[in-house]
Amino acid sequence: MSKSEFETLGSTLLVHVELPQLQSQEDLKELELLADTAGGSVAYTVVCKRESPDPSTFVGSGKVLEIADAVKLYDVQTVIFNNKLTPAQERNLEKAFSVRVMDRVALILTIFAQRARTYEGKLQVELAQLQYEQARLVRGWTHLERQKGGFGLRGGPGETQIELDRRALRERISAIKQDLEIVASRREQNRSLRKKNSINVVSFVGYTNAGKSTLFNRLTNSDVYAANQLFATLDPTLRTVEIPVIGKAVFADTVGFIRHLPHDLVAAFKGTLEETAQADLLLHVVDSSDEHKDLNIEAVNSVLKQVGAQDVKTLIVYNKADLVEDSFDEIIRDEQGKPVRVYVSAKTGFGIDNLIKATAELLSDDLCEFTVKIGNRHGKLRSMLYSMKAVDSESYDESGNAILALKIKAVDAAIIDSKTNGALSECALVQKLPWIKDDEFDFDSVS
């Protein structure tokens, strides 16, 4: 699957097969948007129903003849199936139509190949392409499947062309994975630095075309590319934002998800998606005007589970509230009073204040605020608190002890207390340690 193949879809014919299994259903309108996003011009659409896919052609011999006639009639260059085809089905269909045949997975890979801009993004897309092509390699080389031989070779068969090409693929995949490991190590260093500086990370996730990038731009005053099309943003973007009460936070705009996102893409983008799993808060952006929004939410949650981000605190952000009538100009909370949902319009600015307020609440719900008194013998503790940017203010008493007002995450407080052999507990001017639930601390008993 070369890059030139990806960029020359030309006139396309769409094939939408309805199967009885709910999990196999795809949206025809979404396929049309995907084809348009990839640069194809939809000339004709074939819709049919089947109880199960035909093993050889997916649609059956009669429907193959019908599609072949439509391909000639409408001068189609590419036939796109709204389903996943096996390599054998793809070969048989290409032989019958005499044009390029691609399935939903290949179409999504096409778009990703067109949109990748950064070095890491291009590597990730190429890896997904090569992994997809491994099983389909025979398609392009059947006419060359002969043995290589020549003067100087000992007796016996040489490598066939297909074997040579497969070996080249494996070597390239291995090289890309090594390069991605280097990029991933740099990303981990940046992540560790943010953690050391106690900077919260807020990651934007959501179904493609939900308006994540438009909302990201409004909140960060950025100019990230945003358009009314699928996968307008591919490469992740990070911006620093000041949040009330919290202070500095990093907002991360990520690639949009889609139903049945190709497994190879999820695997290839694992390094990038790990940013989501490591985030302090997820803003799950939903297109509130989409009739399939509930299915889209399930699709996003499925991908989050694949990358280990299912347990990260999440705020559902119903975007495009200006297009629906049942939006609320308030923060929707759960039984414990924690924010769970807000309605906003990235286009008009409606609900943005509620979104910022809810974000601050969720980021600060595990934030401990208390005061410590530090004498000369606890210089290490004082240094660690400052390095973690946990000190909100400092003053001194008549004895020269430093009185520090702290604002720190519970987990960070526990880590510092452990590393200083309980010095933070010893110096805390509180009756109850705020990072230890239901555990009373008697300050008067400390010597």
TrEMBL record:
Subcellular location: Cytoplasm
Signal peptide start and end residues: none
InterPro entries hit by this protein: EFG_III/V (IPR035647), G_HFLX_dom (IPR030394), GTP-bd (IPR006073), GTP-bd_M (IPR032305), GTPase_HflX (IPR016496), GTPase_HflX_N (IPR025121), GTPase_HflX_N_sf (IPR042108), HflX_C (IPR045498)
Limits of the Hflx-type G domain: 200-367
UniProt family annotation: Belongs to the TRAFAC class OBG-HflX-like GTPase superfamily. HflX GTPase family.
Self-association and partners: Monomer. Associates with the 50S ribosomal subunit.
Record PANTHER family: GTP-BINDING PROTEIN 6-RELATED, GTP-BINDING PROTEIN HFLX
This protein's name: GTPase HflX
UniProt source species: Succinivibrio faecicola
